[in-house]
Automatic annotation (TrEMBL):
Assembly with partners or alone: Forms a heteromeric NMDA channel with Nmdar2.
Molecular function per GO: ligand-gated monoatomic ion channel activity; signaling receptor activity
Protein name per UniProt: Glutamate [NMDA] receptor subunit 1
Membrane-crossing segments per the record: 563-581, 633-659, 813-834
Site feature: Crucial to convey clamshell closure to channel opening: 666
Domain named Ionotropic glutamate receptor L-glutamate and glycine-binding: residues: 443-508
Membrane topology annotation: Multi-pass membrane protein
Species annotation: Mytilus edulis
Signal peptide range: 1-21
Stretches with biased composition (Low complexity): 932-944
């Protein structure tokens, strides 16, 4: 920056060079900047700032001129002078200040005139909200923010101190409405609420009725938007009503901070805009950003000519694409980072963004700055405020900003294992049992107005005791009037939806806290506050166990029927092949001539079958093993096959029987029966609960009839309900206590359980910090062990040990053994019957064999007898001559003449006749008469028998003394 004494010389030199360039080459583009200012000093500063722009043009063929007037307090005269003395100079952009003597009269006439002729105007002192209306002031911009932008700084201050609820006092004029509207729009995003809005007429002197209700409000943070005069009256009335004492916070606007009676030692905190009234500084910044914008437009060929500029208001264009519109759009996009008043940028309304505000605090030594907000040193706005602030009541500790009641009303309901209840009349007064912490918790029936006395204990009650001791509050506990968690629905006779249950009591301020297993979800969070979760969980489905139907063939489950058939067929095929290999192999027992083995030791078909089954069933093989190498190779392969089959069967049998557990009737939340309910499958959850809202979003959820979890669990236990969807902690607890119940599927809809509080409750932060402290100290884990895990030990956890096999699992094996026994008994009878039948056959055969043997003996005897008799006859007839026909020729005693007649033929002489005794050795025998002899007598014929009679032997055996 050149020295101020050399600056006029530099400017003169520049003007000379410009004139020289015009005479030599093309003339530069002339840009005229007009000014309507408050004083001659401001005019001089304006002219100097415009001339400084010409030093920064560089190679751009551009020259800036300036023209200015002093604003007339009369708006009409100011507009006339503007046209005659400024617009007539062909200005492209304007800088406007305020009338002499103050800023009470804004430059409205200048903005109207320039707006009509599309001349951009930069105001350096106008802060009225009206200039943000582009319908009225289409080309107006300003280097100072409007008053209602203080709402932005108030919001940052509230966020810094954590105040969530305020009382807003404002005037009913345009400025008051604008600042309230902007604050509410910004506060809604930050979850900061306006508990009460107090409006007053500007210039009113009576505020008694307006401030009367403030002590009854919960909030103690008061935001005041008022003029200096109105603020003085408000402070006076507030002091009378002790509204400036300890516990209150007063945050006031810039105008209100100028009040002469801002209470000393009462600690009001206000704002002040940095360089708010420094006209010369704003002139420099306004001219600087104008020069930067026009140079950028010419450099980028966005503004190549200003030929549309006229030297008269009457002849100047007021529509179409003018240079004024181009410059206005360029100013909206431009940013000046090194401005004296801080970073200068404009929003779409032409209002300055990110100005610098100072925080001012009324202290005994006066109003002192205690911090700032804005881009003082950085490109982004920042808040920096000191801790050395005097608050109302002359204290240095930040007030809580709320009228905090330390005795709270707590609502809960029975939800085991978190909250247990009992009638006080059944077990005596609450707290008689030293092993558990019991609290009185009454229930009031709103329809009958009857109060029932209960005692409550459990996980949540012990947690409530710990939190109350850490945060320092007292409490009373009652059970929810309708014993539900709460849902958002229409009540009877109402057209609008309302919350019921515990949430409804919190919304209607009948309770301060909900201490129960309350699920944190977005629907509830819109109406109530939640603490940090004290337990994380999800949803799960409770069903009754359905044991697998184990039939008699359960032991056959490891293999499919086809595989069983193939295994059985393989046994017989292998046995047959083994027999054939060993039978026809030259090295088998059948072929070994020198083998000591007998025929029984050879591998016959029966032995091969026994061998194949024995290898498969891993039984000992004592006989009938293969002898040939080929059969033994097949035997080894069969043994490997049997090992694999048996091992696979054993493994699958363990899976089917040992680990066989009762199954759930559904697979989980993705089960088709939950997505498409039908009459054959009923499922539900608790009415007016978060689970019901979640489930209705997932599918076409059916109407639920259960008001409590206990009712639904009993319905599942009694087979009246197929499935119950609820919090995992409760259902896992119930499934562990009742071995007939089981949870199905995986967790879904994961969420946290938290303490419910009224919206923007002063206790939210403290209770959340207390819960986090309990987590860090391990208290929550201890509560889990005492109330959930400890009481869940009655049934073994799922998967902790294999299931015990029962008769239903192994009935088929026992039936197989029983079948073997019955088959054995049956076969023994068959064997006995068969043996008897074979015995009779063998006896008959033996008898026949014996008879045949005796017959053969008899035949032999007869043959011997015949031979003997024949020899006798031969000896007898040796001496008797006979003819060729065997007839004797004569006898010695002359008897039997017929026998001794002459017989023709050859004569024989038989030998000596032997007696029967001599021939047989014992028995007498009279030989039969030859049938051919005619001399045989009838008596001899009657006593003769046929020698060939088979009964002859039997007769001889029966009676040896026969003749």
């Amino acid at each position: 920056m050149p020295h101020k004494n050399t600056l006029p010389l530099i400017i003169l030199l520049h003007n000379f060079l410009v004139s020289l360039s015009q005479s030599i080459g093309s003339p530069p583009e002339i840009i005229t900047i007009g000014g309507v200012l408050s004083s001659k000093i401001a005019q001089n500063e304006f002219e100097k700032s415009v001339n400084n722009l010409n030093l920064l043009n560089g190679r751009i063929n551009l020259h800036f001129n300036s023209t200015s007037i002093i604003m007339d307090p009369n708006p009409i005269q100011s507009a006339i002078k503007l046209c005659d003395n400024v617009v007539s100079q062909g200005v492209q952009v304007m800088v406007v200040s305020h009338p002499p003597g103050g800023d009470s009269q804004p430059p409205i006439s200048v903005s109207y005139t320039c707006g009509f002729y599309q001349i951009p105007v930069i105001g350096i002192s106008a802060r009225d909200s009206a200039f943000s209306d582009k319908n009225v002031h289409p080309t107006f911009l300003r280097t100072v923010p409007p008053y209602f932008h203080q709402a932005d700084v108030w919001l940052e201050l509230l966020k810094h101190y954590g105040w969530k609820k305020v009382i807003f006092i404002h005037s009913m004029d345009e400025e008051g409405r604008m600042i309230l509207s902007r604050f509410q729009a910004l506060a809604e995003k930050e979850d900061i609420s306006v508990e009460e809005t107090i409006k007053y007429e500007a210039g009113d002197n009576s505020f008694e009725s307006l401030l009367t209700a403030i002590p009854s409000f919960e909030s103690r943070v008061i935001l005041l938007s008022a003029t200096k005069e109105d603020a003085e009256n408000i402070f006076e009335e507030a002091s009378k009503r002790s509204l400036l004492g300890e516990g209150y916070v007063w945050i006031v606007s810039e105008q209100a901070m100028k009040a002469t009676n801002v209470p000393v030692n009462k600690g009001a905190l206000g704002l002040e805009l940095f360089n708010a009234t420094a006209e010369n500084v704003h002139i420099k910044d306004a001219v600087t950003i104008i020069g930067k914008t026009i140079r950028s437009l010419f450099k980028n060929d966005n503004l190549t000519t200003v030929s549309d500029v006229s030297n008269s208001c009457k002849n100047r264009k007021s529509s179409g694409e003018t240079s004024g519109k181009i410059i206005y759009r360029g100013l909206l996009k431009e940013r000046l980072d090194n401005a004296i008043t801080g970073q200068i940028t404009f929003n779409n309304d032409g209002d300055r963004l990110n100005p610098i505000y100072y925080f001012k605090n009324r202290q005994p030594m006066g109003i002192v700055p205690v911090g700032y907000f804005g881009n003082k040193e950085a490109m982004v706005p920042a808040l920096d405020i000191s801790d050395n602030i005097t608050w109302p009541g002359n204290i240095n500790t930040k007030p809580k900003g709320l009228n905090i009641v330390t005795h709270l009303e707590v609502v809960t309901l029975e939800a085991k294992p978190f909250v247990h209840t009992r009638l006080r009349s059944e077990g005596g007064p609450c707290g008689t049992d030293e092993d558990k912490f019991e609290l009185p918790c009454n229930h009031v029936n709103m329809s009958t107005n009857v109060t029932t006395e209960y005692c409550c204990w459990g996980y949540c009650m012990e947690m409530l005791r710990e939190i109350s001791q850490m945060v320092n509050f007292t409490y009373d506990v009652h059970i929810s009037h309708d014993k539900t968690f709460g849902s958002f629905e229409k009540r009877r006779g109402s057209k609008t939806k309302q919350w019921n249950g515990m949430v409804g009591e919190l919304v209607s301020k009948q309770a301060d806290l909900i201490v129960a297993p309350l699920t944190i979800n977005p629907e509830r969070a819109n109406y109530i506050d939640f603490s940090k979760p004290f337990k994380y969980q999800g949803l799960i489905i409770l069903v009754k166990k359905t044991a697998k139907s184990s039939n008699l063939a359960s032991f056959l489950q490891p293999f499919q029927d086809t595989l069983w058939i193939l295994v059985g067929l393989s046994v017989h095929v292998v046995a047959l092949v083994l027999y054939l290999l060993d039978r026809f192999s030259p090295f088998g027992r059948f072929k070994l001539a020198k083998s000591d083995d007998t025929e029984e030791d050879a591998l016959n078909l029966s032995s091969a079958m026994w061998f194949a089954w024995g290898v498969l069933l891993n039984s000992g093989i004592g006989e009938g093993t293969p002898r040939s190498f080929s059969a033994r190779v097949l035997g080894m392969v069969w043994a490997g096959f049997a090992m694999i089959i048996v091992a696979s069967y054993t493994a699958n049998l363990a899976a089917f029987l040992v680990l066989d557990r009762p199954e759930a009737s559904i697979t989980g939340i993705d089960d088709a029966r939950l997505r498409n309910p039908n009459e054959n499958f009923n499922y539900s959850t608790v009415k007016n609960s978060a689970v019901e809202m979640y489930s209705m979003e997932l599918s076409t959820f059916q109407k639920t009839e259960h008001l409590t979890a206990e009712d639904a669990i009993d319905a599942v236990r009694n087979n009246k309900l197929d499935a119950f969807i609820w919090d995992s902690s409760r259902l896992e607890y119930e499934a562990a206590k009742d071995c007939d119940l089981i949870v199905a599927g995986e967790l879904f809809g994961r969420s946290g359980l938290g303490v419910g509080l009224q919206k923007r409750s002063p206790w939210t932060h403290d209770i959340s910090m207390a819960i986090l402290g309990l987590h860090e100290k391990g208290k929550m884990e201890q509560l889990d062990n005492d109330w959930i895990l400890k009481e869940s030990s009655e049934c073994p956890l799922e998967g902790s040990a294999p299931a015990t096999l029962g008769l239903t699992n192994m009935a088929g094996v026992f039936m197989m053994v029983a079948g073997g026994i019955v088959a054995g008994v049956f076969l023994i009878f068959v064997e006995i019957t068969y043996k008897r039948y074979r015995g009779l056959k063998e006896k008959e055969l033996e008898l026949a064999r014996n008879a045949a043997d005796r017959w053969r003996g008899n035949i032999e005897k007869r043959r011997t007898l015949r031979q003997t008799l024949q020899r006798q006859r031969d000896e007898q007839f040796a001496a008797i001559p006979i003819n060729m026909k065997g007839i004797p020729l004569n006898t010695n005693d002359g008897s039997n003449s017929s026998m001794h007649g002459e017989i023709q033929g050859e004569t024989h002489y038989p030998g000596k006749r032997l007696s029967y005794t001599e021939a047989t050795g014992s028995k007498l025998y009279s030989p039969p008469t030859q049938p051919s002899l005619p001399s045989a007598s009838s008596q001899s014929e009657s006593r003769s028998v046929t020698i060939n009679n088979p009964a002859y032997g039997d007769i001889m055996n029966q009676d040896d003394n026969f003749v």
